[in-house]
Amino acid sequence: MNDMMSVFAKGKAVVPFITAGDPDAASTVKYILAMAEGGADMIVVSVPFSDPTAESPAAQEASLRALSGGMTPDGVLEILRTVRKKCDIPVLLTSYMNPVFFYGYDAFFSALGSIGAAFYTPDLPYEERGEISDIAAVHGVPVLTAVASSSGSRIPAIAAAASGFVLIASPSDDPTGDDLAAAAKEVKKYTSVPVVADLGALGLDRASAAAPFDGVVTSYPVRLIASGATPSALGEYISELKKKINS
Questions:
Q1: Assign residue 52 a region: left if phi > 0, alpha if psi is -120 to 50, beta otherwise?
Q2: Predicted TM-score (pTM) of this structure
Q3: 168 has which bridge partners?
Q4: Which residues are CB-neighbours of 71 under 8 A, at least 6 positions away?
Q5: What gap in Å lies between CA 163 and CA 123, rounded to an integer?
Q6: How many alpha carbons fall within 13 Å on the CB side of residue 38?
Q7: How far is it, in rounded angstroms, from Cα 245 to Cα 207?
Q8: Per 3-state DSSP, what percentage of the chain is helix, strand, and coil (rounded to 5)?
Q9: Which of 38, 126, 179, 234 is deepest in the core (most CB within 10 A)?
Q10: Secondary structure of 91-149 in the HEC alphabet?
Q11: CA-CA distances (angstroms) from residue 145 to 55, 106, 160, 179, 220?
């Protein structure tokens, strides 16, 4: 996981997003393994939170379902440990800072380091990244950089400090991609690392929206899970999306 550049060695990366514990821990493991088998290059696994304001509506609903089922940060880490025993796909764990703070920074990043996962949080500004970056580094955990299309004059500094890849974030469940593409173009002026866009619930009919980016995060699996889709259905979606964005 420390060599995230390898994720982009075979074309545009497909990075599905799911919420841990939606609908339960065992199902989450099955979904991750099926998407890895389908060709996912990395998996974003979200720690459910009671007030996920930076997430899309579909992801917010998934978070609340997972919490209703009793999912905890310890439960999320156990899911990742189970996955790691069966699969070596890179994992990016995303969480709001509140659960991490109460878990304890050192204990949390020690656990992530032992699993081999990277970390991203939507609610710690770039200027305050030092709160966790040094502790994460001690445990070998990469902390991903993100910019929003509204980051404006802050983009040069954020991009220049990035490692692994830069995530262009969107709170929308169905962004057009136009504003994200403009942000990606600006980011690439200041860094050589890959640029990955959060294109929300990216359906196969919108695969062309991936063109300006080195990879895409898609939360469409969250919708499939909510509809009762099987793990194999998620794997098939990933396989088809990967073909389409790299054709």
A1: beta
A2: 0.93
A3: 147, 197
A4: 20, 21, 22, 25, 48
A5: 19
A6: 26
A7: 6
A8: 50, 15, 35
A9: 234
A10: EEEECCHHHHHHHCHHHHHHHHHHHCEEEECCCCCHHHCHHHHHHHHHCCCCECEEEEC
A11: 17, 20, 10, 18, 22
- The H or E element containing residue 18 is strand 13-19
Residue type, 218: T
Q: How far apart are CA 18 and CA 112, in angstroms?
A: 17
Instruction: For the chain, 247 residues long, give each residue's pLDDT as a single digit of tens.
Output: 446 668 888 899 999 999 999 999 999 999 999 999 999 999 999 999 988 777 778 888 999 999 999 999 999 999 999 999 999 999 999 999 999 999 999 999 999 999 999 999 988 888 888 889 999 999 999 998 888 767 778 888 888 888 788 998 876 666 666 778 888 888 999 998 899 999 888 889 988 889 999 999 999 999 999 999 999 999 999 999 999 999 8
- Tell me 77's DSSP state: H
Burial (Cβ within 10 Å: 0-12, 13-18, ≥19) of residue 127: exposed
